[in-house]
Design brief:
Number of strands: 19
Bound molecules: zinc ion
Strand order of the largest sheet: 8-7-6-9-10-13-12
Distance between the termini: 43 Å
CATH superfamily of the domain at 299-404: NAD(P)-binding Rossmann-like Domain
Helix content: 25-40%
CATH topology of the domain at 299-404: Rossmann fold
Mean pLDDT: 94
Strand content: 15-25%
Shape: globular
Low-confidence stretches: none
Length: 405
Amino acid sequence: MSKCLICKTEIAPFMSFGKMPIANGFLPPEQFKDEPFFKLDAAFCDNCKMAQLTELVDRDKMFHENYAFYSSTSAGMAEHFKEFAKLVKSSYLPKKKPFVVEIGSNDGILLRHFASAAINYLGIEPSANVAKAAGDNGINTVCEFFEEKSAARIAAEHGKADAFLGANVMCHIPYIHSVLNGIDALLKPEGVVIFEDPYLGDILEKTSYDQIYDEHAFYFAARSVSYLFERHGFELADVMPQDVHGGSMRYVLARKGTRKVSDAVPALLKKEEALGIGRPDTYERFRTNVEASRTELVKLLKEMQQAKKSVAGYAATSKSTTVLNYCGIGPDLVEYISDTTPIKQGKYSPGMHIPIRPYDDFKEKYPDYALLFGWNHAREIMEKERDFRRAGGKWIVYVPRVQVL
Ligand SMILES: [Zn+2]
């Protein structure tokens, strides 16, 4: 039995995805023999209602000088972060000398909007290569993990913050109580925490099981976030659904009683109740849906193989690692994966070792079918790849269900 990372209650997995490599661990052939694997099991805590992983990968194996994810690669995400910054500036910062801190600030995609508005800010990013990219763009970034210890030092050096921001970061951190203690030390009494992460409600509704991978220790919902922060003296003041990463939720938290709680909070909690987010049988049903999705996707790819149709993967996402390894999809079914990120090109996908090729290879000779691993950017990608469709190419997607488009 494992213990809940939040409340220490004993928990058992509701499903196992089996042996899994590091999701972002794209690698050259000489490293195949030393490739690290762990067991990807997901559990739900019936006490504090947090969905989470039971076996965790050492953080230094995931976030390091070769971290393969740069935020600033999608035009849609750039726009999203511009809007995020605008909201923070207009609704959550005091007029006088505000100070904003962002955790996991990556290459500075959000913070640059504070930099350009001459607002005092600081980025904290543990992956050296993306932190350097931020530094090269003139974004103030310290390269380290944020936790209780570093928070006290940052507060002493830079002063206390008015807003603590995070996008697709908080759900990565198993030692989240230390982060919340850190936030408590760093934030001014009236300060706010605003963060967003993939939303558990969307994962359950869309059977988007590819959101479950090593970096995501938690799968948040309003109910579990509220429980977690209450333990640290904060309350959930607002929630805002976001149409990114396949369905995310933005949470606004403040010290209890310092901010009016929006009507959106009880409304979402009620919706989660109806969806069964707090009940174990919901996760049993999710597992059945995931198993059915796997069966259908493998059947479809085997039919393509028999019909001698070429299939290439589109976008070597972290999420694709769960799908490929859980379904057992290798280079016999998907010839290669096209990706625009230079650090991944020429390497192989984690675990199943499908070659990652530059985008030009896809463009020069279209496959018959493209398996869309970046399904959360489907609209942007399909718009960009109209020539692929005109040339007779078809898309395979697997969220919310397996289908050919
Ligand atoms: Zn718990």
